[in-house]
UniProtKB/TrEMBL annotation:
This is Restriction alleviation protein, Lar family. InterPro entries: Toxin_RalR. It comes from Terrimicrobium sacchariphilum. NCBIfam families: anti_R_Lar. It holds the Pfam family Lar_restr_allev.
Length: 65
């Protein structure tokens, strides 16, 4: 079980609960300033790109409401 998924609302497009937060790589490299983006593991819908994992979570949840 991954506790991270409990903090994220279900996907607004397909209703899937397994939402991940992935680093958003710029130019294929992970470096200082890496941003984070929520991604539905089923339909691959993506949330807003944010500077921290927490912000990405909040943006996703706000979008779902
Ligand atoms: Zn989905």
């Amino acid at each position: 079980m991954n506790e991270i998924t409990d903090k994220l609302a279900p996907c607004p497009f397909c209703g899937w609960h397994n939402i991940r937060i992935n680093p958003h790589r710029v130019g294929g490299y992970v470096r200082t300033g890496t941003r984070y983006q929520t991604v539905c593991s089923r339909c691959k819908s993506r949330g807003p790109i944010k500077g921290t994992e927490q912000e990405a979570e909040e943006a996703w949840n706000n979008r779902v409401k």
